[in-house]
Amino acid sequence: MQIVKLLIFTISCVFISSCANISYHLGSVASFTEDPKFDPNKTYTYYDKTVSNTLVFDEFEIMVSPYNSVKTNGHFELFFIPVEQQGSNAGSVGQTPFLVSISVKGALNTTKFIPFESVLNEDIGVELVKWRDPKPSCDYHYTDWIILETNIIHLVKDRQRNQGQKCMKQGWVEYLLVFDFKTPKPTERFSLDLSFQNIKTNQIMNKKLFFSGAKFVSTQTH
Asked: Rounded to two decimals, what is the model's pTM?
């Protein structure tokens, strides 16, 4: 009887560990050049640094996430055999406004972010800016969005902030740029200009980012 129970338990473990949800997406990836540094025909994971939306500068870094990702395909696998096909999901593509998340952190008291100077495709100014500050917890809980008054300049938060918290990405503060523009497909190329200011010299630093579509796959194993 014990042998039978052990066999059933073993089979159950294999059954559970062999189930997976596979999802395929298209997403816009930022780079410093018009021509992407990644292979548009290759499928990446979200952990691949080749298609990371985190861009590092001398005194600060930014993480850019356009709200235009598209789920292109997905299925449920049992023992690595597809058993259920799912439809596509276009997300917010084609809808107005177009939202772009900008998370910023940097060296202490060195840089200011000027969100209202953000420009899409060289001629579309930002319509509205919101911001929020993540609470350092394992639940990745965020505070509510706060609408910024026009022309507000924000001090870039210290990248060492919240280092004692092990369950979250330390230091980031997130901004939501709202553009009166139809949300592009991730395969459409677009650009975004961001402005920063050096606190010591008062010099304005303009950063131009270019976006191209990349393929992603994500897997949840059960």
From this structure: 0.79
How many residues can be counted in the chain? 222
Q: Is the dihedral of CA 147, 196, 161, 163 positive or negative?
A: positive
Q: CA torsion angle for 38, 32, 196, 59 (degrees, to 10)?
A: 70
**pLDDT per residue as tens digits for the range 48-60:** 988 988 999 989 9
Q: What angle do CA 216, 191, 91 make, to 5 degrees?
A: 45
CA terminus-to-terminus distance, the chain: 28
Q: Are strands 204-221 and 43-44 parallel, antiparallel or unpaired?
A: parallel
Cα distance between residue 187 and residue 94, in whole Å: 13
Q: What share of the chain is helix, strand, coil (3-state, %, to 5)?
A: 10, 45, 45
Write the DSSP string, 23-61. EEEEEEEEESSSS-SS-TTSEE-TT-GGG--EEE-SSEE
